[in-house]
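This week, work through this protein record:
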Amino acid sequence: MPLTTKHLLGLEGVTREDIQLILDTATTFREVLERPIKKVPTLKGKTVVNLFFENSTRTRISFELAQKRLSADTVNFSASQSSTKKGETLKDTVRNIEAMKVDMIVVRHESAGVPNFLTQISKANIINAGDGAHEHPTQGLLDMYSIREKYGKLEGLKVCIVGDITHSRVALSNIYGLKTMGAKVSVCGPASMIPWDIEKLGVKVFSRIDDAIAENDVLNVLRIQLERKAGASIPSIREYHNFFGITRERLEKHSKKPLILHPGPINRGVELSSEVADGPYQVILDQVTNGVAVRMAVLYLLGTMN
């Protein structure tokens, strides 16, 4: 069965069946990545534009690799070298790009809602690669894939998202996606970094990191979004690490060790100690590999709809 949506703008409202289809399809492409020749002709003849208005390393490279693994033609857009610096509007930029007959647009933008806006002015399939502090759906999907790869399921697992929830687009995508798949979701962090009405989304709030470690199967640890002025929400980086940093000493207090995820980039010595970031309980680099497979799945499922 195909996806029931033409675009991937977020995980809010995406059906359980669609998420299941993406994760199952990603399993097939994960096997492709282990082959000597890591390429299939699935999207040959399709053109994908990566429209990035924010800095990115993992997400941009991951999408570009996914496109090339599927044999699509890839075009990378750099805002710093574009006509937007001359005053061209986003609307005109996208319409000019679409006039070159592109099939899909992957967009990252500092403003929430931009991917949805593009669906109103473009006939291309739109994939949200992160919009402001709204959502980052492919990150949420690859996180779920990585958890399922470890535990064999998502239903009934207890997953806690730790850190700067207020400024994080990863947090929202994880909350929506995990709850749809039957996981029990919670958050943990300083009160100044957790939205006051977060419990309306059906999540539990932990105020102590030790309680979160003791009660959860998975910790998805987020970095402090310093570029979004998140540092103003805490007295100091050192104090944040003392109260909420995941360290080997904290983990050793508990017989059951949770799986550690991190979307990157890691601020070592802040949200994770180096011993944990490189330790046996984390799957951080597996997330990166899985991200290519998940993005291949999304591109394939959307790209073969038409």
Q: What stands out?
A: The two ends are 14 Å apart (CA to CA). The chain is about 40% helix and 15% strand. The CA atoms of residues 27 and 180 lie 19 Å apart. The mean pLDDT is 93.
